Amino acid sequence: MELKKSLSAKFNLNGKTIEAMVPVGATLLEFLRYHLRLTGSKDGCGEGECGACTVLVNNRPVNSCTMMAVQVDGCDVVTVEGLAKRWGEGDLHPVQEGFIDKGGVQCGFCIPGMVVSSVATLEKCPDANLDEIKNGLSGNLCRCTGYEKIFRAVEQARDKMKKKIPEKASPKRKPELVRV
Amino acid sequence: MLEVDIVQPKSLNELWKTVSQIKEPHRYLAGGTDLVVVAKHGIGTPCTWIDISKIKELKKIEEKKDSIFIGALVTYAEISESNLIKKWVPALGAVCPEFASPPIRSLATVGGNCANASPAGDGLPALYVEGAKVILKLKKSAREVPIEKFFLGPRKTVLKKNELVVGLKIPKKSGFRGTFLKVGPRKGLAIAKASLALSLKLNGSGTIQDLKIALGAVGPTVIRAQKTESILCGQKIDSSIIKKAKELVQTECSPITDHRSTAEYRKAMCGVLLGRALERLLKC
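ok -> structure tokens follow
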């Protein structure tokens, strides 16, 4: 068994084009955390049940712990580290600001996944009501907060994001090539 | 790191040229939401995974004259967004909000749901009531298997070695409503304790002209509740016939007691789910 085999993959990551040799046995989460040193996405359950590892692949939320890293070839991947740049204004994405302003963070472990899932929900559904926000977060577990302040955070972000010109919210920048 | 090798054919042609040379054991990988999770527990590895996720021919939902084609790689997220599914395969559309979670729906494919053949697979009862046929290909040969003949038991299907589910063919039926409900330990991310799909057509005077009922997670594979179908078919629906149907459907399932639930509870839930499904479809 050639355990050390790697396949080449070319994909967009947080706005940059990456060409990399990806070990075939690695999940996307392992590749992001241990090879690319993007440790924002967390390993909670490793089984796709808690959502702490949530990233965006082709604008959809995905449990990176159940996706094999080689499968991102040709895809657009966004992690929590890339959200501020995706929004394109200021140091934080409005969802991140919401979590800070509304006190939606306790231990912090679930938060990157919560933030990414919420970004996906609001980009798809800018007028999301509370039920839709909750549905969007139905794959993310939190053991600390009881969720209420997380919902308030996402509602604040929704209201702020609605005020912005729609075009700026989706990235159409020309990506730079980076070899890893 | 998993003990796997991965090969990535770019097309069905490339797959058929190379599949016989791929080292054994090998399995098809699509969304990975079942395969990767069990592999993490050491089940099914070492293995070579044939990653078919980039094969574009399997990724479409197409309207044909008499049927809808759903490619095997269509995800449940895409199913939930499809107007064609909403119109022609409503029971399958109703599965999506009950299915796992949004991140899993982004990756989980209909083809994988079928090939995995879990007795509790959410999409399966809906495919039964919508009259789906599973389209299988192996190199130059192709066959269509009615979904009711596709499953042989828990995690067992009629798939031959290297044969691939390429899609589902759903006959267009006009005037049918469809829905799906399940009961689990919580609202989301829950394996069903019992599930039910219902497809029915009413005629002008409010009588059920045609219907299909399928039960999930209460037997080794999906069960069509045919006795219950026959007492409801041709009937004007009132509370006494619904009560009879809810009692009869409980006799048509054969659930087990396991760590998720007891047989008694699952039986009882079949009746409850039928009542809720009828209420949902007859209201609108």
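The longest strand of chain B covers residues 194-202.
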